[in-house]
Each structure stands twice: as C-alpha cells, then as structure tokens.
Amino acid sequence: MMTTDPNSRLSVQFPGRGEQIDQLLAFLGQPTDSSPPGIFVYGPTATGKTAVIRELFAQYDSTGQQYALVNCIECFTPRLLFERTLNAWAGHTPNVSNKYANYVRCENLVDFINCVRDLLVVASGGQRADTTHYLVLDQAERLRDRGPMLLTSLLRLSELTGANIAVILISNVVWDKFRPRHGGAPDPIPIYFSAYTKSQILDIVAKDCPQDEPQAFFLTFVDAIYEVFHRNCVDLNELRHLVAMLYPKFVQPVFEKQATRNEFARLFKLCQPYFSAASERLYLREISTSEWQKNSAVASAKNDPDDVTLSIYQMAEDAETLDLPYYTKFLLIAAFLASYNPARLDAQYFSRSKGPSKRRKGAKADDALGGKDRQQLLGPKAFAIERMLAIFYSIIAEPVDSSVDVQIQIASLVTLRLLTKASSGDRLDGIKCKCNVSLEAIRAISRSVKFDIDRFLYDFT
Amino acid sequence: MPARKSLSLQKETAVDINKARQLVLGRLCGRVALPELIGLASPLDAVFSLLYRTVSNDEGNSALLIGPRGSGKSSVISKALSLVAEKRKRENITSKYHIVRLSGFIHTNDKIALRDIARQLLIEQDLENILIGSFADAFTYILNLLRVASVEGEYGQPPVLFILEEFDLLAQHPKQSLLYTLFDIAQSQQTPIAVLGVTARIDVMDLLEKRVKSRFSHRQIHVHYMQSLDDFTSIARAALHLPLSDNINNDNNATFSEIYVSRFNSRVDEILATESVAAYIATVFDLGKDVRQLLRAFVLAASHITIEQPLLQLTDAEASIAKEEASAKFQVISTISLLELCLIISMKSLVQGGSSKYNFEMVYNEYKTFMSRHLMAAATGGTMKVYKKPIALKAFEALVELEVVRPVTTAVSAESNAGGGAFSRNDMLAGSTQGARAPKEYRMVQIMLEPGQIVELMANRIDVPMVIRRWAQQ
C-alpha cells in the first residue's frame, strides 16, 4: 500500500514534525491493525495539527473512504456531523444528480451507530469491519457543548459499533478540559504538537520565499521580523502574514536603486518608519490585505517617512470615526458620561450655577482616585435614560427644539449597538442603558464636536 | 541487539510478526478479549449462571453489575455471553435466544431505546403507529411479535437477554418506564428475560423509583479493582504475552513459532520488570487501578513491531509513559509569547491584591503600571516595549482560547450544566449577547493557574527579562 516511505516524505514537507508523524503512522499501521479507539492531537495554534493529519491521510488512504475529516465548527449540530461522516465513509458526495442528498438521514446517536454498523459490518460482510476507519474531528473543543453524551459516545464508537474505528480529536485545548463529569469517556492517547522552535519557523517560512528572490536574503529579513514579533505573538500564521505583506516593501528600494541587497542595515533603516506603524495595524487587521497591497505602493514611493506614516494611519483611520449627526454625538457623549461617572457627582459636574473645574478639585480631595475598581476598569454601568437626557441638555450649548427627535436618536443608537439596553425588552418605562463605546472613540467624537470630555470624566487616567 | 538478531529469523516469521502485532494491538485497544480474566472469577461465575439459567430454564432474572470504571465489567459480560454460547454448543441445544444491548450513553430516551430494541430483535415492522400507546403496551407488543416468529419451537417465546450499560443514565429517563417494564416482565414470567444492569455508580439503587425498585430482584454483583499489584501487573503480562501454539484454538487460530513466542514473551517480562515501567504500573495502581490506562502505555510499543524490529522496545514504552505523566497544560502554555506571559503575571498580582475576578481592562492597567514603573526606574527600556491595548487584547484572547483564562459565569447555572464552561468561552469569543452583555474588555475572567505554577512557568524559559522574573516572584 505504501510504496515510498511516507514518513520521510511528510517529514520533509512538515519541518520539525517528524516525531509526531512517526507516532501517527505507527498508530495507523497496517489497514487492518486495531487502532486505539481515541487519539487526542493537541498543541498551540498553528503547529500543523490539522495540516499534518490531512496530508497524512491523503497519502495513507488514496480512496478516501477510510477517513472522514469533520470540522466541528462547520458541523454545528450532531446530525451534520453524523451525516458528513457517513458520506465520507460511504464514498458518497452530494451533488446535482442525487439532489444534494446525504448518504443517509441520521438524527441521533443510535441512528448513527446503527448506520455505521450497517455500513461497515453488515453491508460489506464483515470485510470492512476489520479495516480501521478514522473519524478526524477538528476543533474538537466544540464537541463539549453538543450535549454531554456525544463526546463520550464518539470515543467509545468502536466499542459501540463493533467496527474498527479510531476517533482522532484535534484541539488546542488540553484533554483535562474535555473530561466529562460522569467519567465515562476513556482517555484517548495524547499526541502533542509542540510549538515550533525558531529554526523550524525559519524553515517553514523559507517555503514562502518568492521564486525570483535569493533565499538567504529573504531569511535574514524573516529573522529580523521574527525577533521583533515573537514577543507578542508566537502564531506562525500571523508571522507569515506579516512577512508576506512587508517583504515587497522591504525589497522595493533595491529595485528603485536606492540600496543594494548587501546593505541590509540601510534597507532596514529605509523602511523602519513605516514598518513599526504598519506592522501593528496589519497584525490587528485594521488594514486589510487588499487595502495594504493597493495603497502601500503609493505610500512608499514617496519615501518621505512622515508622509508614509501619515498615509498608513489614514488607511485605517476611516473606520474609526463614527459618522453621526451633531446632536446624536452629544447624546452619545452624555451616555458615556452617565455610564462612567458616579451619579452623586452629577450636580457638581453639570449644574449650571457653578463651573465644573472648581468642583472637580473638591471631588478629588474626597475620594482616593486611581483605585483598582474605578469605573474605567469595571466597564460601563447601567443608567436611566432620564439621567442621560439631563446630562445631554446640560452639556449641549444651545437649546434643543424637538424632544421627539432625541427619542428617535436614542432608539437608533440602540439599534447601532452603541447603546445596549440593560433593562428587559418589554419595559417601556424606566429604560436603562449602557454605553458601548470605548474611551478612544468617544474622545474622537468629542474632538469632532469640539467638546472637552476630559474635563467631565471622573477618575480616569 | 534485537534488530540484528531478527535477521536470523526465518522468512515465515514475517507472517508471525504481523499476526503478533495485530493480536497484541487488538488486546491493548480492547478489540480482542484478554486470554484470561484475572481476579474476576466470582462475578463471572455469577453473571454466567444468571444468564445461563434464563437461556436454558426460561427463568426471569434481574441483577445489577456494579464496579468502578475500568474494573472489567464489560469483559465479564462478554466473557459470560461467549461462555453461554459455548456451553449450549457443547450441549447441542439449538433453540434461539436474543441479546439486546442498550447503553445509557446513546439511548437517551425511552422512545429511542424502544425503537432500537425492536431493531435489535430484528423486527422490521413500522413502529410509528405502535409508539402512540403506552410504553408497556408497545413493549409487550414487540415481545409478542417474537412469540409469533418462533411459534414452531416448544418454548413459547425465546429468552431475551437485556444488557443495560450505563444503567444509571437509563435510570434518569423520566418516569423510568423502560426499566419498569423490563423489571416487571422479568418478575412476572410472561417472557423469559434477563435484565443485567451495568453501572459504575454504587448508589444506583437510590435512583430507582419505588415501583421500579419493588420489581427488581435486588441482586447485586460487585466487581472490585485488583487487590494486589502483582495481579495488576499480570494483566499487562496477559495482554502482551503471545499464546503458545497449543492452547489458542479459539484465539484467531493464530499459531506462532515457538522460538519467536519465547523470545517475545521474555522481552515482555523484561520490560515489565524494568524499574521505570514497574514504577509506572505502581503509580497507576496507586492512583486509579484503571486497566485501560495501564494498557495505553504499551500501544506505541506494540505499534512499532515490524519485521526489522519484531519485539517490543523498552524505549517506546518509556516514551509513552513519559507522555502520560507530562502535564499537558504546562506543555501548551510553556511556549506562549512574552506578552501573554506578562498578562498572566498581571493577573497573578491582581489575585495577590485580593481580587478574585478581573477583566481585561484591569489586567492591562496592572500591566501598564508595572511597565511604566519599571521603565522609569531602569530608564534603559530598549528591550521592553509597552504594547498598545488592542495588541494586548489580542494576546489576551489567545489566552482565553487556550482556556488558561476562563470567563466567570453566573455561577449556579454553569455548575449544573456540564458544558457550561464551553458555552461561556464561546460567548467570550463571539461577543454574543447571551450571558455577558458587557463589551469583551469588561467581562470578568479568572486565571486557571496557581501563583506557584506561574513562577514555575518562568523557570523553564530563557527569554524572560530579569525584571519580569522578579515581578513574577513578588
């Protein structure tokens, strides 16, 4: 069945995963060997768990009828999971000619077990019962919220059906967090996918090297990015994303004849100003891949660091400012103040007779500020709409004509989820809300209406 | 060296080796029964005689087989069933009997159970219309169909053996009509049936309703864990030893060459006697006595049996033992990024400051105050960067994803629900409105590590700056 040695082939394809591949292949063994009923593949994100297993099975079983690969996020009900599994084992593909019907309709566990038994034991005259069949469950941690019995039964599948079935769970959560309370699930055999070491990461990213670029040069760049980046994120996929986005910018000076490939330090210096700005924004996906590719060419061609930084900021800026009507912005500010300031200080802050600054000093003397349970850290608290309106009328400079509009605006703020209702939905009176906007956003809004919000915030740092 | 010796083995032993590998793996994975049941003679006897009396004398019987997980209940039953079949074969009795197996794991309500009973009794009739009536009616109807089917026999109805696994879960069905009907029939002799409940719960009798309990025979068969370590070790030996060619008539008709068997078995004894393996067996014995856990350690070694390497390898066994003993949680979190580590330490210092729960804002505030204090004191600061809030939030979410940090749920509802933790985790990630309404920065969480473990976490890392180390040890 295996003509060339799959172990060495896979090990080349997946650097640093030799031990895990070796173990998996040992457990797979010959097609008719008994396999352990449960194998638990775990490890941090982006360590090749799914990729290795997918590739391994693609090579191990060319017919594709011995294994079913099911993603538990995709198959969000047990029924989907069962039917997908049976489709795979039966070699059935829903398509036009069978009107996208599944191999069999399978509502619950008993049906599933009976179908499996029919398929593997009865229909094939016992021939397939000895051949190991695999059920690979990706993102297996989601199985825990599909009813208490599902996971247990799946791990006992081979016992319950009498067929030779191995269930492989893939997850980044450890098995301790899976173990059901009733204790009926047999512990699966663990296979740990460790995080990659630096040299392994470089080996892997080296495969991403563009064809017409010298690899050593590319790797020096990756090395530098890694050194900066691994302190806040060890996710390989994120690193590859960053490298793919930033590398074209890095080599650009070479093509523009501003530097040569040997002047590594100089190249770095040339792109330093916008790397620090861009990498953060790319990492947080504030700039999408396509936006970056479209706009960064313009940005770097100017080669004036300040302009570049500015243009990078502009790329992401649009999303941040909320485009709201003038009064609505004040409403939102009022809601923010009502959410974070204590009600007892409202009179000091907002009463018209006395200026707020003088009162604020007094307030500071009373309380110990900067404590660990200040409202800024605890998050917004619910406030009565009337209180928000009072603050609104107090902070807005000119008198507002129509109170109807204000009510409509409140409703639309709730719809926009900038305010969330804290009281039950059917109450019309005494509605309570929370403000759902961050301090940065509210500062931007205040700036746009020329309102100095910092004067009114209590106990913020 | 075993590898070199194997070259001297004959060609035909390749077949042997393959067979040996399959046999041992099958035993370790629970697909092939162990050749002998060690220390289970008395429960086996009790179960066998109970089942046999129903099959041969048409007695109605009911009993509970109680024993902790991994103590051999299922093995006892399958052995007893095969003994029944064997004995009848020997005595040349051909009358039919049926076996129905139910499990509390999959038969989650009585309707499903009833349908499956009918299916297992090979009744093809459409059951939809009979399920409208009461459970007992439908059930007797099904049993009567059996009577019709076997009318030519001298017995009115063929005996049915009901094996109810996870009996305690079946007892949690509303009204317990399945159990009531089964016990009622077993007691009233309408049909010869044996009901054998299997459970790990010792208080299972308390789960039964009064009317169910009064129909039960109150016969309990207990399976105990091994009493002595020697017996426990001999289970491993029984699972790993190859049979000698004369006494394996019923064992996959596998025959092995005597040289290979003796070499294989002596290697097994050698491995079992090794200090590290013996220590592992003793640990398993002391902690839980679970046979499955014991056998798991040898799966890797058994799957590495090849023609080049026909015997078990000690290194494989030791490697899987090391894996069993390693703390998975530590493995996963030992490679988190420095920023994530800093957040964990911030949480530790919050815990030490007396807060039992905290949100991201508090953690970040803690992190920022520490960093600014440190940067001011050291004034060098080049290596340490204070990350912005969104980046820290992303790192924080990675911790939530690893379930190192867990959202604090409104305690009571989560307690009762087994999947409660998973639900709240999804809430946390998806920002759904269920449960926590606050923005994700403000949702209260708890760290799932002890302060001591956090310090330990630092010890194994080389890339942690001295300041952070000192901070963690405060």
Automatic annotation (TrEMBL), chain A:
Residues 13-168 form the Orc1-like AAA ATPase domain. One of its GO terms (molecular function) is ATP binding. It comes from the Eukaryota. It comes from Coemansia spiralis. PANTHER family: ORIGIN RECOGNITION COMPLEX SUBUNIT 5. One of its GO terms (cellular component) is nuclear origin of replication recognition complex. SUPFAM superfamilies: P-loop containing nucleoside triphosphate hydrolases (SSF52540). This is Origin recognition complex subunit 5. Belongs to the ORC5 family. Signal peptide: none annotated. Residues 220-277 form the ORC5 lid domain. Keywords: ATP-binding, DNA replication, Nucleotide-binding, Nucleus. It holds the Pfam family AAA_16. It is found in: Nucleus. One of its GO terms (biological process) is DNA replication initiation. Residues 324-457 form the Origin recognition complex subunit 5 C-terminal domain.
From TrEMBL, chain B:
Its main location: nucleus. The keyword DNA-binding applies. SUPFAM superfamilies: P-loop containing nucleoside triphosphate hydrolases. It is found in: Nucleus. GO terms for biological process: DNA replication initiation. Residues 235-457 form the Origin recognition complex subunit 4 C-terminal domain. The keyword DNA damage does not apply. Residues 37-195 form the Orc1-like AAA ATPase domain. It holds the Pfam family ORC4_C. InterPro entries: AAA_16, ORC4, ORC4_C, P-loop_NTPase. Gene3D superfamilies: P-loop containing nucleotide triphosphate hydrolases (3.40.50.300). GO terms for cellular component: nuclear origin of replication recognition complex. Keywords: DNA replication, DNA-binding, Nucleus. Component of the origin recognition complex (ORC) that binds origins of replication. Belongs to the ORC4 family. This is Origin recognition complex subunit 4.
